[in-house]
Structures are given as C-alpha cells and as structure tokens.
Amino acid sequence: MVQPKNFHYYKFNDGTKVQMGKLKQMTLDLFQEGQELKIPEISKLMNLREDTVIQVVRKLCIRGKLQRQQTNRHTIYSKKSECLLAELMYPKSIVNKFKIKSSKIIKAEDGQNHSYPLSISHQYSQGNIIYEGGE
C-alpha cells in the first residue's frame, strides 16, 4: 500500500523521524504533576530543535492540554489540570483507596420526567370565583 505523501515528519537531532501525533504525546509525557518547563528545557529533554518544540507546544495549548504562564522573561508551560477542585479535595493518595462496589446505568429515557410550567402567572388569576351565601 502506498503511503500518502502529505504526512509531515519531524526529525530529532539524531535523525529519527516521528509524526505529530506521537510527538504531541511524547511532549505531554514529559510533564509530571505540577512540573513547569520552558521551551529550551523541553527542547533539551526531547532532543529536538526549538522551532519544532514551539509548534508542538502551541498545538497542545490550542487543544487545551497545556497551559502557559507569561513571566517577565519567559513563557512557562505546564500540564492543564482536569478538575482543580477534585485535586484539592481528593488527592490521588486518597482516591486510590476508594473501591467501587457497584454501578448502575440509567438511560435518560428511563429516568423521571420533571416538567414545570413556563410561567406561574396562571396560578394567581381570578377567573369565575363563586361566593356562597352572598347576594
């Protein structure tokens, strides 16, 4: 089977080639929890040219996988947290102790249907009031 010619490969300094998808995953794997890196540091760790690292990091920032923080001299990149509140309330050491006993999946169609009136003005209307005992 003939490979399409529009695949773009990035070269490491030692000459090996890799595609963007694998390169993005390799870049994400560099960042551990709370670790902050600059472009020259990422370039040195991955053995890539800085302009290639800039392209990869920019794509990861656009996709929301990395976050950037501008300082006076440098831009610092770190891995974006999925849920900060969950990380604060339930650190991984605690979460690993939880055990799921059972799970139950309910389709939306099988759930309860709660419908509310769009307006409540009809509750206060005074139509056809009959008073007893009066003339």
Characterization of this structure:
This protein is 32% helix and 13% strand. It is α+β, with helices and mostly antiparallel strands and 135 residues long. It has a domain of 93 residues: Arc Repressor Mutant, subunit A (Orthogonal Bundle), CATH 1.10.10.10. The strands form 2 sheets. It has a 3-stranded antiparallel sheet. A hairpin with a 4-residue loop joins strand 4 and strand 5. Helix 2 packs across helix 3. The termini are far apart. The model has no long low-confidence stretch (mean pLDDT 77).
Keywords, separated by commas or semicolons:
alpha+beta, 3-stranded antiparallel beta sheet, 5 strands, 13% strand
Explain briefly what this protein structure is.
This protein is an alpha+beta fold. The chain contains five helices and five strands; from the N terminus they run E-E-H-E-H-H-E-E-H-H.
Q: Tell me, briefly, the overall form.
A: elongated
> What is the H/E string?
EEHEHHEEHH
CATH superfamily of the domain at 1-93: Winged helix-like DNA-binding domain superfamily/Winged helix DNA-binding domain
* CATH topology call of the domain at 1-93: Arc Repressor Mutant, subunit A
Count of strand segments: 5
Instruction: Give the strand content.
Output: 5-15%
The largest sheet is:
3 strands, antiparallel
Secondary structure topology:
Layout: E1 9-11, E2 17-19, H1 20-30, E3 36-37, H2 39-46, H3 50-63, E4 66-70, E5 75-79, H4 84-89, H5 92-95
Antiparallel strand pairs: 1-2, 3-5, 4-5
